[in-house]
Amino acid sequence: MTDLSEAGVVVRPAVPGDRPVVDRLWLMFRHDLSEFSGLLPRPDGSFRDERVVDAFSSPGWAPYLFVRGEHPLGFAFVRALDAPVRVLNSFFVVRGARRTDIGLGAVREVLTRHPGRWEIAFQYENPGAVAFWRRVAAEAAGEAWTEEPRPVPGRPELPPDVWISFDTAP
Q1: Which stretch of DSSP H or E encloses residue 59?
Q2: How far is Cα of residue 71 from the mean position of the Cα atoms in its chain?
Q3: Which of 33, 35, 36, 78 is the most exposed place for a label (fewest CB within 10 A)?
């Protein structure tokens, strides 16, 4: 795996001043996911953004930004930090930085900052996410991880999300 420091990549907590950058990255993230969900943007070109709002303002949430120099590479939102099981709520790496192990290094850094029980959701319809998240689980927990489909709450028309669960050591 790429050493993030050697690649010049920094994973850091996002602060309120980062919000405009995260908002733009969020649009890219939601655009990518629309390929699998069929969701369209609102009339103003935006997508639902309550997760961004929560990441920056709700207790038990932590937003992270991945940067190389002045270039934003992606973000992660962690929720349920005040609960027994942490949830990697949203994770995104810009296309120009994918398949370079930057995403793997970034998620490893986020998981390390919050050791314990984790759950991460993805969609089977997204083959890149399937391979990526299975690799993350295997690297984090060896064979001690599970995968299960769960219905999307309030969205019976959507295929179930797939959830992986594992523990990380302190």
Answers
A1: none
A2: 18
A3: 35
